[in-house]
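hi got a favour to ask and not much time before my train. below you get a single protein, a line of residues and a line of whole numbers that encode the local backbone shape. could you go over both lines and see whether the tokens make sense for that sequence. a few lines back from you is plenty, here it is:
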Amino acid sequence: MSVSASPFLTGQFLLAMPGIGDPRFEQAVIAMCVHDADGALGIGIGALVEGLTFHDVLEQLDIPTDGVPAVPVHFGGPVEPRRGFVVHSADWSGQDTVDVAGRWALSSTVDVLRAIAEGRGPSRWIVALGYAGWSAGQLDEEMTRHGWFNVDGDEALLFDADVNARWLTGFASVGIDPLLLSTSAGNA
């Protein structure tokens, strides 16, 4: 199902359907940051990396943590799980920042981490390790099968919803109770 006329999902969220079949994506919420004819990249915002905080990340980079909240780090996805990303409000831009459909931004260089630590970064942000990636046409093909459901890129889901409730909140935003959905697709 699509909530947009565009064939691409940049600026939307992918919600894993019940029974997606890949334990890495059970109840996943993916903020789609890039999706075009060349492929897709999204950052998971529905699960946390256990035992890792933003302070830990800053300390590994020798960036002072004074006054910085020790928020958890999200599991961004299974690709390059040691690579960091910051999904953030569009009120800040730095080296290689990607505008995501005018809704939010994505940065993956250390300058955004320094800016946050120094109190001059984006007003809202989420730190994640890893990403979900698809080659050209792969996500488009996956969207025709049981597995993913896309919803509008509401900033409230991104920044305000509790991480443990994002999956349910994403479905509720379009009036769906995912607990009532089938865990498999049928054949006609």
